[in-house]
Amino acid sequence: MVAGTDLYKAFYAQRQRAKQRGVVWELTFEDWIQVWIDSGHLDERGKGRGKYCMARFSDSGPYKIGNIKIIPYGQNISEQHYSEERKLQRSLRMMGNKYGIGHTCNHTEETRKLLSEKLKGNTNAIGHTFAHSEETKVRIGKSVSATLALKRQNS
Fold first, then answer.
1. What pLDDT, in 10s, does the model give residues 91-114?
2. In this predicted model, what pLDDT tens digit does every residue of 68-92 receive, in sequence order?
3. CA-to-CA distance for 88 and 85, rounded, in angstroms?
4. Is the pTM of this model over 0.85?
5. Is 51 within the bounds of a domain?
6. Within a 10 A sphere around the Cβ of 56, how many other Cβ atoms?
7. φ and ψ at 72, to 5 degrees?
8. Residue 127 gets which letter from DSSP?
């Protein structure tokens, strides 16, 4: 069994990480340790394969009795990635990204003309196709065929 002092440290560390992420923490040490004991995974706490962690349902709301569960670490990572709260956080981070897909540029007419002149003859610009040699086309074809064959074999 894990030593008592280490458990206090783990409790306070988890509470501090929650606070840093802006997540409300409503558990006492006694609540926290009882949830772990009841789960049967107290000695398997931690990060990584084969370890367990305390997580919130739908990765949202406060850490409190009734909104927490003990699950495998990998499952928690997966749930965090797809939670509505995480999606909203990512969306808010991207709002100011004027270079992301779907954002339009508000160039002046003068700037558009300058860009148009600079891109004339640029065969690498969007909308242009590459002129591969016949040898390169054959190599690409073989590579694509081999990749498709592997995919069919593995499915």
1. 766 666 655 555 556 678 888 788
2. 999 999 888 877 766 666 667 667 6
3. 5
4. no
5. yes
6. 20
7. -60, 145
8. T
Q: Is 103 within the bounds of a domain?
A: no
Note whether residue 60 is domain-resident.
yes
**Sign of the torsion formed by the C-alpha atoms of 104, 107, 109 and 111:** negative
What is the DSSP code string of 36-105? HHHHT-GGGBSSSTT-EEEEEGGG-S-B-TTSEEEEEHHHHHHHHHH-HHHHHHHHHHHTT-TTSTTPPP
The number of distinct structural domains making up the chain is 1
CA distance 141 to 101: 30
Which domain, by its residues, includes 15? 4-91
Residue 135 falls inside a structural domain:
no
Q: In terms of Cα–Cα distance, which of 112, 37, 104, 103 is closest to 70?
A: 37
Specify burial of residue 27 (Cβ count, 10 A radius: 0-12, 13-18, 19+).
buried
